[in-house]
Amino acid sequence: MRKLDYTTIFFALMGSFLVLFILIPIVNLMFSSDLNSIIANLQDSQVISSIFISVYSALAATLIAVLFGVPLAYILARHDFFGKGFVESIIDIPIVIPHTVSGIALLLVFTSGGILGAPLGKLGLVFTNAIPGIIIAMLFVSSSFVVNSAREGFESVDPRLEKVARTLGSGTMRTFFVISLPLALRSIVVGSILCWARAISEFGAIIILSFYPLAASTLIYTRFVQFGLSDSTPIAIILISICLTLFVIVRIIIKGWRSYDKN
Amino acid sequence: MIKIENLSKDWKEFKIDNVSLEINDQEYFVFLGPSGSGKTMLLELIAGMWSPDSGKIFMEGNDVTMLPPEKRGVGFVYQNYMLFPHKTVFENIAFGLKIRKLGKKEIQIQVQEMMNLFGITKLSKRLPRTLSGGEQQRTALARALIIRPKVLLMDEPLSALDRITREELIQEFKRIHKKFNVTIIHVTHNFDEALQLADRVAIIKEGIVSQFGDIDDVFRHPKDAFVADFVGTENILKGIAKEGEDNLTIVDTGNIEIKSSEKKTGSVHATIRPEDITLSNDKVPTSARNVFKGLIKEIYDLGTIIKLTIDIGESLVLVLTRQSFLDLELNVGKYIFVYFKATAVNLF
Q1: ipTM above 0.90?
Q2: Are A160 and B85 in contact (CB < 8 Å)?
């Protein structure tokens, strides 16, 4: 057995602070409500519909992020061009600005008179106090997870693999789909999960853009403000259970995923 | 024939500067140069992986300069093989045929034939990461050759392999060169590889072709100090080998006879590494099978070591430490005894 030295023990003790700091409130939350009130909440149609809205909108936001983020990630991984640093910074901006600020920025553009809201409104797409508003709020704050993770995935694929495929007769598009994409898929999936999880947890931008229909995070907030802790806790437990279950399932899938670069 | 005309391309770290070359059909051509000389980039330019800043590339008389790699019909083998890690050996080899939309049965037959040829049939269902270097290299060769390319480009194909596997693959390269009637361009920094394989060689330095031509010619008449330095680390003698006594091979160069412990007959090259040669002022009893009296022609002071050229009927280069050089009291025009063992003489 490896001998533990004082430095390792000291660092482990220091490091366990953060782990416990995150773990204790979550575990405590899980046991902060009785089963009856959880079941009662599960029968509350408003709770169910708000959870559905959150899960569904986050999924839609993730799909949009993947559809547009993966091509961008590939370009960023493979090409150097003027303004690349600028593009990378733009993708990361939503991470550093307060989410309420993101919400206000989106609202100004997507409101019925806004520069994007007006033309899209003519096509029948309404963003304020509507599900599309929740989706774009989620997309704005979480898409960078897909782009950054996919980009790392593509960067780890040796460009020479693509070059060899091309000498064997494969065109650029086909090479992308049969070589680059499968090899980067793990990173893209990881990024998508982070994106989805981040989207579900969004609150700040959503309440400004689309307070109604109530997303789960908004519902928890309104119940807390109106009725206090005892009414909001069961919903929080339901939401966190759904998220953790999905998170664990995905972690298991990822772990079993064939990794080609390791022996 | 591949014709390269005034080809130039500047990447920041590397550049290819006004390269012109002609490579004949079915020739085994070697680009020889130190790392960072741009030889891989030149190979990738020929494959169509980059478009040049200026200049042209012709294959069989057609201008292919702007053709993408998938339209050039060249095979490519990299140093690290670049097998598709998510595909099995079979799928890797079948890749080019699948793109050509061959039927499943036809693919099966052709891939099987290729795997038999390279002795990798048993590995069919394995993933690349589970293979040894030699197995990966054979798979990469099979994958490149199955599309019957007219030209096979190989980038340092032997560098990542151990000595024994390297020797095996050198024989393999000779075999496929004949069998597939393919023009091979092989990039290496290893002069031995060039000696053993090349019909002709181009010495590349900082993106420029310093010299090209017949391998013996380049070796015997290096055009400048760089080429001489790069190729001149060994003594290479051409001769006729025949069986001699004590299980030894005798190589007759026309001027002297050298004994080697390697078994070869017919026309051969014999190489002797300079550090395998020893000197003494008087004839001493020794186990070395090759003993000659030679005349010191040239002495180069390289600092801690001294390089000598000695005429023993053939010109030999050897190196000494400064101390041994002083102890032996050597100077130009002096006669000296030269010894090297039969095991120090490599034949190919």
Answers
A1: no
A2: no
* Residues contacting residue B309 through CB under 8 Å, at least 6 positions apart: B296, B297, B298, B315, B316, B317
Asked if A161 has any chain B CB less than 8 Å from its own CB, the reply is yes
Alpha-carbon distance of B242 to A246, in angstroms, equals 76
Question: How many residue contacts between A and B have a Cβ separation below 8 Å?
Answer: 69
Closest Cα in chain B, distance from residue A169 (Å): 4
Q: For A182, which residue in chain B has the nearest alpha carbon? A: B86
Residue A43 in contact with partner chain B when CB distance is under 8 A: no
Q: Is the pLDDT of residue A164 over 90?
A: yes
Class of domain A34-254: mainly alpha
Q: Does A79 touch chain B (CB under 8 A)?
A: no
Of all residues in chain A, the one with the smallest CA distance to B129 is A263
Distance CA B316, CA B338 (A): 10
Confidence of residue B232 (pLDDT cuts 50, 70, 90): low
DSSP string across A51-95: HHHHHHHHHHHHHHHHHHHHHHHHHHHH---TTHHHHHHHHHHHH
Q: A-contacting residues of B 10-49, CB under 8 Å?
A: 44, 47-49
Percent of chain A exceeding pLDDT 90 equals 67
Q: Which chain A residue lies closest to B100 (C-alpha atoms)?
A: A169
B28-32/B183-188 β-pairing: parallel
Per-residue model confidence as pLDDT tens digits over B270-286: 888 787 888 888 888 88
* Per-residue pLDDT tens digits for B190-220: 887 888 899 999 999 888 898 888 887 777 6
Cα separation, A159 vs B2, whole angstroms: 26
Q: What CATH architecture is B2-231? A: 3-Layer(aba) Sandwich (3.40)
A167 touches chain B (CB under 8 A): yes
Nearest to B131 by CA among A164, A153, B141: B141
CB contact under 8 A, A167 and B84: no
Domain ranges (residues) in chain A = 34-254
pLDDT, mean of residues B52-70 = 92
Contacts of A260 in chain B (CB under 8 A): 85-86, 127-129
Q: Which residues of B touch A187 (CB under 8 A)?
A: none
Q: Is B86 on the interface with A (CB under 8 A)?
A: yes
Sheet of B28-32: strands edge to edge? B74-77, B151-155, B183-188, B28-32, B200-205, B208-214
Of A170, A171, A260, Cβ closest to residue B129: A260
A137 confidence band (pLDDT: 50, 70, 90): very high
Rounded CA-CA distance A209/A195 in Å is 19
CB atoms within 10 A of CB B91: 17
Which residues from chain B sit within 8 angstroms of residue A170, using beta carbons?
A: 70, 95, 99
Sign (positive/negative) of CA torsion B323, B326, B327, B331?
Answer: positive
Least confident range from A225-229, B21-25, B270-274, B277-281: namely B270-274
Nearest CA in chain A to B70: A169
**Residue B43 near residue B202 (C-beta atoms within 8 A):** no
CATH architecture group of domain B235-347: Beta Barrel (2.40)
Domain boundaries, chain B: 2-231, 235-347
pLDDT band per the 50, 70, 90 thresholds, residue A218? very high
